[in-house]
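In response to reviewer comment 3 from the previous cycle, which asked for concrete evidence that the modeling workflow produces usable outputs, we include below a single protein chain processed end to end. The sequence was submitted unchanged, and the resulting structure tokens are shown without manual editing.
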Amino acid sequence: MVLRFALVMGLTLVVACGDDDLPPEDAGGDAAEDGGVDAGRDGGPTLIERPEERVACAARDPLRRPFFGDLHVHTRYSFDAASYDVRTGPDAAYRFARGEAIDLPPYDAEGRATRQIQLRRPLDFAGVTDHSELLAATSLCTDPTSAGYDSFTCRTYREGDAVAGNFGDFVSSIGLATPLPTRLCRSDPELCAGELADVWADTIDAAERHDDRTDACRFSTFIGYEWTGASGGAGRNLHRNVIFGSSTVLARPVSFVDAPRAELLWDALESLCLGSGTSCDVLVIPHNSNISLGAMFVPRFDDGTPYDAAAAERRALLEPLVEIYQHKGASECVGVGGPLASDEDELCDFEQFYENLCEDPEDDGSATGCTPSCIATDGRGSSFLNGCVAPQDYYRGALRQGLAEQARLGANPFQVGAIASTDTHLSLAGGVDEGNETADGWVGHTGSADDEAEERLRPPGDSINVAIRTASPGGLAVVWAEENSRPALFAGMQRRETYGTSGTRPIVRFFGGWAYDDDLCERSDLVERGYEGGVPMGGALPAREGSGAPVFLASALRDALSAPLQRVQIIKGWFDPATGETHERVYEIAGEPGNGASVDLASCEPTLPEGVAPLEQLCGRFVDPDFDPSQPAFWYVRVVENPTCRWSHRVCLEAGVDCASVEPGSVFDRSCCRDELPRTIQERAWTSPIWYVPPR
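The workflow returned the following structure tokens.
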């Protein structure tokens, strides 16, 4: 007998009676009894130590260069990717990132891929980050020769419906606040331990094989994985990518099953890696925070007590970056939801994953079906597509919350820089094209679930499937480093000298100091003076000189394969100790916001008014006119390009949709012929902030 019941997020858990692989009631998992991680790792080694011999890069720039990459890539080893019939592994993902073609589902009866795609511009670096929780079970359940292939766990997984969120018995490891290993892995832990070792070894070997350690330094890789945290149930997406800085890594990943709370993950990484006395180094990147239901950036311990200064410093050290953009849209800011909302910034309405946000923060959405703020629902939500929105889950809200903590504690737990990535579930590291670079455009993220145009254009429904029209091809992570090597890039990430893009490749610089010359934008030594006179993106302003306000330099160079630049903005946030409140403001510092740029929607050709020249580069010097030395503050740069066609409109054009004859209410009608979707997009970049901390 099989009983299916819906969890809070719409996933389906399968419970069986009398099945042959159901373990005895007292069968244990591989996590410690208190939910923590056994430092002994079940008696085995805790680390895989490898030498990392490399030669110096021939191209090395002390003033640093921007390197473009993707640190969020899923392959066939991820349970959800495999359920979409993705058959490519880490090796193929790295080959694709380096410029080789890759196979895509669906596959024909002979097992041949029916689609292929190839990057026009290879990446500089990448990191495969498969879900750690079900690495062994996924491999066993997709291999007909494995000993576990016919188990109940594997049958329910293969018989499930990924589009509806039904992964069978797998949900016990990803959809519960207190996760468990699958029944297969509880009944036969040795089988799963051996499979996990093999899969993790293949992940490591692929990264090591593709990390170019010759003096050419053409491509760098990072060993990593995704901790698929869902505190309070799977509706709260608290996922994090764990990125190692060297070839010495954990002997197996610390998963959500091992460590079902972020604090336990940090404990394990500190104990097993950072405190090991080896070259093991690691950082953690929260991702996709826009669907975490008010829970991602909360300055409290697991028991609800507020952070102390030590906890704030620890979190900032372990989690120096956050993913501001990816497949499930933008996490920069949102205009509804309470005191941290960005109500007056119209550019926050960009690639929002939730289509219809409630305008009133107190509206719970029951009457109109809008997505409510988490204020109205006490942080409850039933799925990715029927959750709640909290401004503190977005980058800007978290930065503002961090200022309040800085004032309270003298330490900022959310001193986080920005990157972007794809979260591809097709092994497509860097596959971010909206259709501007290739004829293929965006081919989807979920294999057989969105290989057809109608699937990618479907409006949000009752399922948890993210292959819908509000999805995005994703973005890119950019790191400023002296050279394209793993150590140099990792150091750049640790110091937060990073930015994220929505998929294009503008080159963005941002410096802050106290006395930059008025003419620095016109000088050839801008970068050298920027470093000498202050700090780059990701840094904190040095001690204040005299009584003046801080001065900022922001420059942007157009991506030659994308639209011209439109404007450069500085976004400021500050904390007012007199009122105990945080505030924000957007300043235009370069470019032309109303330049009249548009797109011919019939051809997707960009247009500019007569006499308006395309902007190839922009630079602005900005002195904060509202600076108060008693107020903690941050500033970051947003670079905005002229509009181009959004991927969805290109799909409508390629499908030849005729709105005069299309079936009313159909997917093509709703997504191509109405005003439910934007037809254009203004690609952009977001830098890490520069912070100011008043002297204590």
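Residues 189-210 form the longest helix (22 residues). We consider this sufficient to address the reviewer's concern, and the full set will be provided in the supplementary archive.
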